[in-house]
Specification:
61% of the residues lie in helices and 5% in strands. Helix 4 runs antiparallel to helix 6 and helix 8 packs parallel to helix 12. The protein has a domain of 57 residues. A two-stranded antiparallel sheet has the order 1-4. Strands 2-3 form a two-stranded antiparallel sheet. The protein has twelve helices and four strands.
Length: 265
């Protein structure tokens, strides 16, 4: 008997999904007592609830729970900052590019709708279409190497590699957007939010064959040197962006007119 923990990594969100299997025949274990015997301990309260909920559920439905997790996080994570901005604006004025600007609640809600629209049109379908890739990446039931530290480290490193690419691109888009508007308050918040999804082309290109090589020796021979170079580039880009902002944002504080909400809230 083997208990497989499926760990789909979707846009940095790790969902731990417990799926119980028999080692022979891929027959699902639906009895909590057999699950306890396989784990060698009793299930916790949360594990017991999740086990009963997922006992008869196919893998792909479990994987699609990532969409719900992402939706909840995208909705709740910015909420404290939005409430502070609306209720106690003076407490964060020193951290704002334009401290004199006060955004109405309608602006926050419009920003949320824009981000959720992108989420539903891009991120949601991307999660639906990425299941075959994760199914191929994680091994079948009964394989003893699926949870090896090597495979986990390789998957984590690749995830961070792609996120660094996305960060570098977002910094470039931010700098170009600031130059385009010449620090006039006309940039919309969703313009930088959309940059968050600019990693889709490289994601699509690399997922065809990259993980097969990564699972063997690709990362050790090629990935780490590339990551080191990329980290240097990101560090240099971050310093340039910081210098640019420090030299120009002081003058932007006195700009009147429409607020420049270039960062998503």
């Amino acid at each position: 008997m083997a208990i497989r923990i499926h760990i789909p990594i979707a846009n940095g969100i790790v969902a731990l999904v417990l799926i119980a299997y028999c080692a022979a025949g891929d027959v699902a274990v639906r009895d909590p007592r057999k699950a306890k015997a396989a784990l060698g301990r009793s299930l916790t309260f949360a594990e017991d609830i999740w086990f009963r909920y997922t006992a008869r559920m196919p893998d792909y439905l479990l994987f699609y729970h990532n969409i719900i997790f992402l939706f909840v996080i995208f909705s709740l994570a910015p909420l404290p900052l939005a409430l502070i901005e609306l209720g106690f604006p003076a407490s964060i004025s020193s951290f704002k590019i334009q401290p004199k600007i006060r955004l109405p609640p309608t602006s926050f809600f419009q920003c949320y709708k824009d981000v959720m629209r992108v989420f539903l049109l891009v991120v949601g379908p991307l999660q639906l279409s990425s299941y075959p890739h994760h199914q191929e990446l994680f091994v079948v039931c009964g394989d003893k190497d699926w949870a090896s530290p090597s495979l986990t480290l390789q998957k984590t490193n690749d995830e961070q590699y792609r996120r660094i690419q996305k960060t570098e691109h977002a910094l470039q888009v931010a700098e170009e957007e600031l130059l385009r508007v010449q620090l006039e308050a006309t940039a919309k918040s969703k313009e930088l939010s959309q940059a968050h999804g600019a990693w889709f082309p490289p994601w699509l290109a690399t997922h065809a064959n990259y993980y097969k090589e990564l699972a063997t020796t690709h990362w050790k021979e090629h990935g780490q040197p590339v990551l080191d170079v990329l980290l240097q580039k990101v560090s240099k880009k971050s310093i340039q962006a910081q210098q640019f902002m420090e030299s120009h944002f002081e003058s932007s504080k006195a700009v009147s007119g429409q607020p420049m909400t270039i960062f998503s809230i």
